[in-house]
Design brief:
This protein is mainly α. It has 24 helices and 3 strands.
Length: 478
């Protein structure tokens, strides 16, 4: 009997929930500066109220919360082990050594550009934007702080580079999942993504290079840089062998070994290095896995940068993710995204609108589902039939899907990617958001292709792939 009473939310109900959700977030965060955990918890009851109004039982809604949390359980486990890894690698001298060599080698004027490229290469090699931000990204943040650069700008360069590789690497979970959802061979998907990613990397590289020269023209105090180098030498044992743990972890990730055991092994190496090379006793070194690294050097650069890490530092983040994933589970269960999908189908009449709809659908997965994987699923389910209706090749679907889902993932403060990047890099999501230049440019290029017809491939009725030429009215086999 209960099933017969349940109905889909109406469009005005969807917009009412959306507006109230944004209002809760704005008042809580911007006006009263309350913890985001409380905002998400309040949003739970907003959606539960709508679910009860639609005929759902409370028990079913509570089950939907649990299912939503379960979908992101692996990401929560990764965050736990990343916290342990950061604490152990600081104690073991891995992160201080990376920062030391960065300060010695990279000039302030090209630092932002170098950060973009280093993080891009690391993410392509490892297939993980999170791993890139948690290793090379942390080191680049330390170097950038020593150079006196704005931390949100440095974070923008780190994240831009990290997500460049995450979208292209065959080792990336999101790349594999996107190709699978779109039913496209992974190499074909990567080739299609290159048409967006390479121009976006080139343009954003020029922007970060220009920004680096702009800030350098104001004069970076290199005497402070030298003071920080001396402080690192004083408080840590610096040497090339300190980098062995990070090299081992990168190789393990490149070989597609599971991320959680890899991070755990990297943490163990950090403890060993702290004991062997940094003079720490074994038990205090092990404690850094949970409590993080602690130092009172008297040097602000050292104290601010290295008093961090440990599982304990991630507990607030884990709470946010649990609440956000539960919120996403509720939104999916009551049919909010399904209502939006039904309206989108009527709107999609050409490749440009289809591209915009795919990007929007994937973004809504991040916004309401609070997880990058959810965004890929919502984007695919809400628009894939329209690609078939317009005879557009599924490689275009996979390209637009990953652009809308992965590039927008770090832009939402309560999504798993937004929470992770803000926590690991120490910069609020809304602070680094304006500097995600590669992400915004990539989205712009995807929309440009859609509305101009550039690189929009079609299929014949027999399923043969075709590419429409801009200079000729005929099509050529692709």
């Amino acid at each position: 009997m209960e099933v017969n009473k349940i109905r889909q939310p109406k469009l005005f109900e969807v917009f009412t929930v959306l507006i109230l959700f944004l209002l809760i977030m704005y008042v809580s965060l911007a006006v009263y500066n309350l913890p985001i955990q409380l905002s998400l918890l309040a949003s739970w009851f907003l959606v539960i109220f709508l679910g009860l109004r639609l005929g759902h039982s409370y028990n079913n809604l509570q089950t939907a919360v649990a299912k939503g949390i379960y979908t992101g359980l692996e990401a929560i486990l990764v965050i736990i082990f990343v916290g342990a890894l950061i604490g152990a690698w600081i104690a073991g001298g891995v992160v201080p050594t990376l920062i030391y060599y960065g300060l010695e080698i990279i000039h302030p004027s090209v630092f932002l550009f170098a950060t973009l490229i280093i993080c891009a290469i690391t993410s392509v090699a490892t297939g993980t934007s999170w791993g890139t931000a948690g290793t090379a990204g942390i080191a680049m943040m330390g170097v950038g702080e020593s150079f006196g650069l704005p931390m949100p700008l440095v974070a923008g360069a780190v994240i831009s580079g990290a997500y460049f590789g995450d979208k292209l690497s065959p080792l990336s979970d999101s790349t594999v999942m996107t190709a699978s959802l779109a039913r496209v061979e992974i190499i074909a998907h990567i080739r299609s993504m290159l048409l967006i990613s390479v121009p976006a990397l080139f343009i954003s590289g020029l922007l970060f290079l220009g920004a680096g020269f702009f800030y350098n023209s104001e004069g970076a105090d290199l005497s402070i840089v030298q003071e920080n180098i001396n402080a690192l030498n004083t408080h840590f044992n610096i040497g090339w062998h300190m980098l062995i743990p990070i090299i081992v972890v990168i190789i393990m990730l490149a070989k597609r070994m599971p991320s959680i055991p890899t991070l755990a092994f990297g943490s163990i190496l950090g403890i060993v290095w702290a004991s062997l090379f940094q003079g720490m006793e074994v038990i205090p070194a092990i404690e850094t896995l949970y409590s993080g690294f602690s130092i009172e050097s008297g040097t602000p650069f050292i104290d601010q940068l290295f008093n961090r890490g440990g599982i304990e530092s991630m507990l607030g983040v884990i709470c946010i993710m649990i609440l956000a994933l539960g919120f996403g589970g509720l939104m999916d269960h009551i049919g909010l995204l399904a209502t939006i999908r039904d309206r989108l189908v009527k709107f999609i009449t050409n490749p440009g609108k289809l591209t915009a709809s795919t990007i929007l659908s994937a973004f809504l997965g991040n916004f309401f589902g609070s997880a990058g994987y959810v965004s890929l699923i919502t984007g695919a389910k809400m628009t894939e039939k329209s690609y078939e209706k317009l005879n557009i090749d599924r490689r275009v679907l996979s390209r637009n899907l990953e652009s809308g889902g992965i590039l927008t993932a770090p832009m939402v403060p309560w999504s798993d990617n937004g929470i992770y990047m803000a926590t690991v890099l120490g910069v609020a999501t809304m602070s680094y958001l304006p500097f995600l230049w590669l992400n915004f440019i990539g989205l712009g290029i995807a929309l440009l292709y859609g509305f101009t017809g550039k690189f929009i491939w079609y299929t014949n009725n027999d399923g043969q792939n075709q590419v429409e030429s801009e200079t000729e009215s005929k099509t050529v086999t692709f």
